[in-house]
């Protein structure tokens, strides 16, 4: 099964990166869920939780504030002004 | 007679205490340069991601936005000059100021009015001494730049850029800073931030074409939000590079100062020994001459 290559970066450091099954985030127009094979999207993030399901299982939650994320052939880059990871 | 020796002794003492200061400054710079470099590295994923996104949006021609439009005849440019706050870094500030002077000369030739924005006390001193005007100055943390400061500078510049020329806005934004190539080479460079020179084609022609993104909520809004961040991140990485360069330049300058101090101490020690030997010889000659005079009388 295809997986997502996720990279989460904040202004001055990389926050999290790895393979994931899915990702859910909050854009300024509402929540969005990304699964492998999603069409390319560039969306602005609102303040809220970002939930990542890594391939290894479990979930990674991060609180992000401001920024955007891009999806492009199963490669997701989340660029946040601020981001805190809580496993 | 002892005067000569005393002078040399004083010189040796003062040179060795200066040497201690140089050594200490060198060590401080060495420890900080590592930190500055790792900060620059830590910020680079963000800068890369945002550059990629901005190029992707801007390369889609159907998007019309202030920030992607080209002004046919630029008439006014903002120039941000990044020097250091403190000296004792060799030719670091001089080099970057020299580079900025040549840019200003070029702009003048093209009939573009330049507005200098200064960063670092050395740049300010350079302008103040020559009684030249500048738009704004930021000082105080060139060796440890903060995101907040980058945001402040970015905001100022974007505001200026969005303003039309007639009401006092600028058409172009240039950044003059020192690029950190390695511990031994730092090079002053000029980068144009805006208008965007779209697609950083560093990956070469072989790179994949930009994907056709869907924008949420709309391309305009995405650009509106993205561009200030992009400018901010470019400025922040320039600030980090400049701080690493400054510290590396300082380390190099202090190393050669300490080496020169060593050299001087060696020279003075030799002279001191010479003077002491001369004094002894003189005394001996006098003694022998005196004894001879007594014996012959």
From TrEMBL, chain A:
MF-aspect GO terms: proton-transporting ATP synthase activity, rotational mechanism
ATP synthase F1 complex delta/epsilon subunit N-terminal domain sequence ranges: 4-83
GO CC terms, sorted: plasma membrane; proton-transporting ATP synthase complex
This protein's UniProt keywords: ATP synthesis, CF(1), Ion transport, Membrane, Transport
Locations listed in the record: Cell membrane
A Pfam entry, by short name: ATP-synt_DE_N
Membrane topology: Peripheral membrane protein
Source superkingdom: Bacteria
UniProt key word Iron-sulfur: no
CDD domains recorded: F1-ATPase_delta
Cross-referenced SUPFAM superfamilies: Epsilon subunit of F1F0-ATP synthase N-terminal domain
InterPro entries tied to this protein: ATP_synth_F1_dsu/esu, ATP_synth_F1_dsu/esu_N, ATPsynth_dsu/esu_N
Keyword Nucleus: no
PANTHER family: ATP SYNTHASE DELTA/EPSILON CHAIN (PTHR13822), ATP SYNTHASE EPSILON CHAIN, CHLOROPLASTIC (PTHR13822:SF10)
Family statement drawn from the similarity comment of this UniProt entry: Belongs to the ATPase epsilon chain family.
Protein name, per record: F0F1 ATP synthase subunit epsilon
Species name: Nesterenkonia salmonea
Automatic annotation (TrEMBL), chain B:
Record CDD domains: F1-ATPase_gamma
Coiled coil: 254-281
A Pfam entry, by short name: ATP-synt
GO biological process: proton motive force-driven plasma membrane ATP synthesis
Record's subcellular location: Cell membrane; Membrane
GO cellular component, one term: plasma membrane
Main location: membrane
Keywords of the record: ATP synthesis, Cell membrane, CF(1), Coiled coil, Hydrogen ion transport, Ion transport, Membrane, Transport
Family: Belongs to the ATPase gamma chain family.
Function comment: Produces ATP from ADP in the presence of a proton gradient across the membrane. The gamma chain is believed to be important in regulating ATPase activity and the flow of protons through the CF(0) complex.
Subunit comment: F-type ATPases have 2 components, CF(1) - the catalytic core - and CF(0) - the membrane proton channel. CF(1) has five subunits: alpha(3), beta(3), gamma(1), delta(1), epsilon(1). CF(0) has three main subunits: a, b and c.
NCBIfam families: ATPsyn_F1gamma, PRK05621.1-2
Protein name: ATP synthase gamma chain
Gene symbol of the encoding locus: atpG
